[in-house]
Amino acid sequence: MSPVAHAEEGKWTPQQVLQIDAGWLKKQGLQLPVSRLWDPARGTGLLAATVALPGCSGAFVSASGLILTNHHCLFSLIQEHSRPDRDLITNGFIAHSREEELPGKTTRITVPRKFTDVTKQVEAAVPAGADDLARTRAIDAKQKALVAECEKTPGNRCNVAAFDGGLQYTLMEGLELTDVRLVYAPPRAIGEFGGEPDNFRWPRHVGDFSMARAYKDGKPYRPEFFFPISRNGVKPGDFVMLLGYPGRTFRSFTGEEMSNEREFRFKLTQEIYGEWINILEGVKTADGAIAVAAMLKSLNNSHTNAEGQLAGLARGSLIEKQKANDEAVLAWAAGKPAYAGALASKRELDRIAEERRKTAVRDYLLSIIPAGSVALKHATQLARLAGERVKTDAAREPGYQERDWARLKAGLERDQKSFYAPADEALLASWLARARKANIAGAQGAAAAPLLRATKVTDLNERLKMFDETLAQLRARQDPLLDLAFALAPDFREWRTSLEAREGAFARLRPEWRKAVIAHAGKPVAPDANSTLRVSFAHVKGYSPRDGVLYTPQTTLAGMIEKHTGEEPFAVPSFILDAAKNARADQIPLNFMSDADTTGGNSGSPVVNGRGELVGLNFDRPWENVANDFGYNPAVARNISVDIRFLLWLWEDVQKADFVLRELGLKR
Question: Is residue 4, in this structure, part of any structural domain at all?
C-alpha cells in the first residue's frame, strides 16, 4: 500500500500511521521519528500512552499513573462521592496526598498492549455454505475463543475488533486497571461552564478536565509511556496530533443505510431523549438532583448530538452526496470483473436496509433500555444474566460471560446512587407507552407505578441477592418488575436473532463493497471508528461557519468572564473572578480549535504537539461539524480542546494544587 500523501482526514490506526509519508508529517510539524509513535515489531509506542475509559479517552501524564481526561468523563466517579453535605459536583475536589484520593466502584481504564491481525483465523472459522445467522455465530465463537486465550494472561482485557465490516479483524490486547481514584475535579461551574447552551458551540470557555490515578496491586501504576506537559501551549497554525478511542462513525455506510441512521437513530433520539430530559429537569430536591445528574448529563449530550447530526445531514446534503458517491463507485466497478461481487453486495446491502425499517422502532426502544429507567435496566440485566448463566461460557451473549460478571455486579451496586424513584417512575412510564405503541408484546398491559411500588429490584440488598440467583429462583419471587423483564425476553430474542442475521450479512457483503470503494479512491482510507486506538493529524485553525462570520481558533479567560451572568450555566466561581483581578485574563488561554477528525469517544483525547508533549484535551466539536460522522468536510471539520495552560494557571496561581504539580515535575 503506497504511503498516504495527505492525512488530515482520517482516524488512522497505529498500523496505518506507518503508511503515512514521513516527509509530509515532518513538514507538518512532527519532530519525532514515526517509529516513536508506533513500533510494528513491538506493537506499541507513544500512542499507547492513550488509555480507554468507558465511552471516553484519557492520557497518562506521569510515571506514577496520573491520568488526565475530561470532567464529564469522570463525572460518575465525582457523583459517586457526592452528597448534599459534601457536594463534589458543585464544589470540586483536590487530593493533597495519595491517601486523600477517592476510589471508584466501576471506574476502570484499559491500557493498550498489543494488536494482532486475526483476519485469517476468523474467516476460516465460518463453515462453507453457512447462512448469515450461522456466519455471525461462527465469527462470534471464534472471537470469544481468541479473547479467552488472550485473557489467560493475568490482568488482560481483550476484544476482537472488525474493520470495514470484516475486511480485517484485529485482536486488541489491553491491561485493565480497575483501581482508579479521583485526584482532581474542578467545580461544576468551571468543568461545565456554558452547559447545554454552549454545548457543540464555538466560542467555548470551559475547563472540561479532571485527573485520576490508576493503581495496580495497591500501588500507583507505572506506564511505559506518558505525555509530558507542555508549558508553551499552542498558537494558530501549530501542528498537533489527537489520540483516542473514537466510538462509531458511518462513513462506510451506503446512502440507504445512512437514511436509516437519520430516521431511526437520530430522529428517535431527539424525540425520546428530549422527553426524558424534561422529566429529569423537573427534579427539584437536592438529593434527587444529585442522583439524576449523571444520567441527565449523558442524555443532554446525546440529545444535542442528535440535533446536530440531523442539522448537519440536511445542511451538507450528506446522504444525497453519499448516494452520488455510491453511484460513482458502481459505475467505475461495472466494467471490472474483479469487482462483480461488489455490485451484488451493494444491491443486497440496500435490500437489507429496506427490510430493517419494518422493525426499526422496536429495535431502537429495546436498545435504549440501559439509558432510561434504572429499575428496568436492572431487571432486564438480572433476568438476562440468569438465563445466560445456564449456558456454557462460550455460548453466552457478549456482556454476560463470566469475564463480565464482576463489572455487572459493580454496576448494580453503583447505580443505587443514580436511582430516584419519582423520576424513575416517569421514565419507565414513558418507555412503556412507546413500547406498547411499537407492539412490543412483553410491554402490553404493564404500568409503571404499580410495578415500582411492588418490586424489590430497587432495593440494593435484594438486588445483590438476585445477582446470584437462578432463573427458577428469580421467577419464584413473583416480582412484578422481574416478571416484566421475563415477558420482554422473547422480544429481546427476536431482536437479537434478527440483528445477528444482519451482522452475518454485513460480514459477508460489506468487505466486498469496501474493497471497491477503497480501490476507487486510489489511496488508503481510514476505516470507520470502532472504539479502537486511532490518531488524527491536525493544525490549530479557525473556520467560517457562514457568510460574513470568521471564528478565530483560541479563547481566553477574559471570554469566560465576559459571559458571566451570575446565574447557571454562566456563573463564574467567585475565586476565579478574584484571581482574574490580579491577572491578565486575556493572556490566559482557555480553549482552542484544530481540524482533527473526531467523534464520540474522543472526549478526553490527549492533544499533543510535534514533540509528543500534551498541550490540551479534546472535549467537543462545533455545531457545524457534528455530522462529521457521515462525511469529512475540511471547511468545518473542527474539534474543541481545553488548553493545558488554563489548567496550569488554575493549579499554580489559584487552587495551589502543589501535590500534583510536584509529581508532574512542574514545581519544586
Answer: no
Question: Which backbone phi and psi does 337 adopt, to 5 degrees?
Answer: -55, -30
Which residue from 471, 624, 487 is spatially nearest to 547, judged by alpha carbons?
Answer: 624
Torsion of CA 158, 162, 163, 165, to 10 degrees: -170
Whether residues 245 and 324 fall in one domain: no
Per 3-state DSSP, the chain is made up of helix, strand and coil in percentages (nearest 5) of: 50, 15, 35
Residue 517 in any domain: the answer is: no
What is the residue whose three cell numbers read 474467516? 123
User: Which residues are the active-site residues?
Assistant: 72, 208, 603
Residues 547 and 450 both lie in one domain: no
The pLDDT tens digits of the residues spanning 348-406 come to: 999 999 999 999 999 999 999 999 999 999 999 999 999 999 999 999 999 999 999 99
**HSE of 662 in the Cβ direction (CA atoms, 13 Å)?**
8
Whether residue 370 contacts residue 377, with contact meaning beta carbons closer than 8 Å, is answered with yes
Residue 233 has a CB neighbour count (10 Å cut-off) of 19
Quickly tell me which residue has 462525511 as its cell: 631
Q: Which helix (H) or strand (E) holds 590?
A: strand 589-594
Quote the pTM value.
Answer: 0.91
623 lies in the same domain as 643: yes
Contact, 115 vs 191, CB < 8 A? no
| Closest alpha carbon to 294 in 366, 371, 206 | 371
By C-alpha distance, which of 250, 354, 254 is closest to 312?
Answer: 250
| Integer Cα distance of 61 and 65 in angstroms | 7
pLDDT tens profile 76-125 = 999 999 999 999 999 999 999 999 999 998 899 999 999 999 999 999 99
Q: Classify residue 1: in a domain, yes or no.
A: no
3-state secondary structure of 506: helix
Task: Using the structure block, give the residue that is written with the C-alpha cell 431487571.
Answer: 379
Number of domains in the chain: 3
Q: Can you give the residue range of the structural domain that contains 183? A: 14-108+178-250+527-663
Let me know if residue 481 belongs to a domain: yes
